[in-house]
Amino acid sequence: MAEAHQAVAFQFTVSPDGIDLQLSHEALRQVYLSGLHSWKKRFIRFRNGIMNGVYPGSAPGFVVVLAGYMGRAKYVQADPSLGLFCKLGQYIPVSNYMSFETQRRVGGILVGTGLWVAIIYTMRNVLKFLLSWHGWMSERHGAATWKSRVWLALVRIFSGIQTPTLCSFQTSLPNLPVPSVKDTMTRYLESVRPLLEEKEYKRMEVLTLDFQKNYAPKLQWYLRLKSLWATNYVSDWWEEYIYLRSRNPIMVNSNYYVMDFLYVFPTQRQAARAGNAIHSIMLYRKKLDRAEIKPFLLQNTIPMCSSQYERMFNTSRVPGIDSDTLQHVSNSRHIAVYHRGRYFKVGMFYDGRLLLPREIEQQMERILADTSEPQPGEEKLAALTAGDRCCIGPVLVPWACARDAYLRLGKNRQSLDAVEKAAFFVTLDDTEQRHDPNYPVESLRRYAKSLLHGNCYDRWFDKSFNLIVYKNGTMGLNAEHSWADAPIIGHLWEHVLFMDPVKLGYTSDGHCKGQPHRSLPGPQRLQWSIPSECQSMIDNSLAVAQALADDVDIHIIPFEDFGKGLIKKCKTSPDAFIQIALQLAYFRDKGKFCLTYEASMTRLFREGRTETVRSCTMETCAFVRAIVNAEPKEKKLSLLQTAAKKHQQMYRMAMTGKGIDRHLFCLYLVSKYLQLDSPFLKEVLSEPWRLSTSQTPLQQPELFDLVRHPELVSSGGGFGPVADDGYGVAYIIVGENLINFHISCKRSSPE
């Protein structure tokens, strides 16, 4: 292949006259440009590290402090060095190298710099103290009290004058507080009250009191100790025990999907859509590397933690026997592409720059035109990432076992590295998916299931995310969950959907704008040597994955009767309104209430991830019963307002570190470390979430003018059910008049 020759920097031949070197100037040029790009990236990271390290300080601030200090010392005729060099002169002959006046100036600069650092440290700690106050959350939007206004003004002042980068606020964010056991027990009993009969509730009260008296003090002491040592007492355990130590398939059970536009189809050309999308994603990575992405600020002032962005790219989950690990490389210059059972490595840079959309389309066209057949075992290799994670009992079950036995050496190792160390994974899918207005239910169901699991072997489910581009130009994402939560990948996807049709666009015949590259090396076909024993393990894993995929049912509802606009006119929180509606729907479906999970974020704290809002409350149940029993309208409206206020209160508590479930989870882990068997924790942690819900937030509404272009609405995304006999419900509030619901369950459920 031509690209193989261009990839060799030099060749040599041995003859009687000696060694004849044959240098390839083009290859050497590419090596030089690659190294230059790498050093530029290192410098940018070093610079950003310095800027974040001194934030909220800035270069102008340093000049002002230093000039002010030196000017004051000169005005009062004081020694700006504070006698620093006089003391050093007792041990080091400084006077031999510097005059007395130079010593005063250098010492003054050092003391002034120390003063600047002290000011930064003070501002940072004051800002951390200010951000620990959350009273502003209980106030109605647009009706802030004088206390909140003063607080906001102080936050802006102590945030400094420099424009913050993505991670500027990290060291100023407070640590997640450990709630008191008493408060957690009270809130837990309140959350299960609507779900238990009187006798069961009394029994749970006894268990709670026993735990609070006999077990909790010791467990809580260890948690408080961890909170003093670690930046977040939950997140590392949450990542390890909820995600990485799970031995079940991550397909459906953990990974989630994100959809394309609902009504807009920018191009019918698969390669062109892939070209614009891949280029947009790589531009986002460039902005992320340079810390040019704006930090997410509530009310344009209050910062949220940005630590989850760090592993968005160049990351893959690696299976282990007892626990998986997350492998992240600092830089990757290629992507991995799957098409018709073949794997390709596609470089994203040439001539020292990122490939343009038309050039990426050119590479995708080459892959689509490739007629070579898959190598033995290659086509369904990724089924290993869809099945069980390791050896269970005496029976060998992929994925960790197969990887360790057959993919560690030779070309298998090289090809596996190309996939796992790629910036991200791309699947050029041979099927056609999109919303069909003539068959909306079935078309969206097929589309969602394809994104969630595909054929169980055409997505690399361990990669941080997979970009799937279909034959008709529709696309979507499948994302692995352990490295970050859905809002992080949602931020990327909003950028892609904005760049694709709005900024980059297409020609009249559907191609990416621009011209193909005449001398661009083609994609590299990855080589595998997969023995028959490994192929048997692939088949076993595929059987597990297909059974799981066939069991999942998904229903997507674009609800257009009304949306956020009407709900807000009723002076009700849209999220609370939807959660109450879900409780009513579940009660009408099952005739009972259930333990309900709503994901809330704790990113107001450093390294915060999520907390659970238990949205089935006594107040919500009272409203549901009033609806079912056809109570008078005035009573139902009153109960709705009461239930919505209660839900908002619980959501605020979850966001501010006063939730129930993460605290109980950590207490349970400590009890296991100490080998203490608590009946209360054992029962609480085994309760099934039969209704698991999550809102997909629209984080960059300024990118989409849905008033002038209502067709640019996103379908949102979804996930599989958490419980075998439960529902998974994801929803996205789009504009003022649309709410998209993604509902999943298992066909095998007895209900």
From TrEMBL:
It is found in: Mitochondrion outer membrane. PROSITE patterns: ACYLTRANSF_C_1, ACYLTRANSF_C_2. It comes from the Eukaryota. One of its GO terms (biological process) is fatty acid metabolic process. One of its GO terms (molecular function) is carnitine O-palmitoyltransferase activity. Its EC number is 2.3.1.21. The chain crosses the membrane at residues 50-70, 106-127. The keyword Lipid metabolism applies. The active site is at H481 (proton acceptor). Keywords: Acyltransferase, Fatty acid metabolism, Lipid metabolism, Membrane, Mitochondrion, Transferase, Transmembrane, Transmembrane helix, Transport. One of its GO terms (cellular component) is mitochondrial outer membrane. Residues 176-750 form the Choline/carnitine acyltransferase domain. It is a multi-pass membrane protein. Residues 1-47 form the Carnitine O-palmitoyltransferase N-terminal domain. Pathway: Lipid metabolism; fatty acid beta-oxidation. It catalyses: (R)-carnitine + hexadecanoyl-CoA = O-hexadecanoyl-(R)-carnitine + CoA. The keyword Phosphoprotein does not apply. Belongs to the carnitine/choline acetyltransferase family. This is carnitine O-palmitoyltransferase. It comes from Electrophorus voltai.
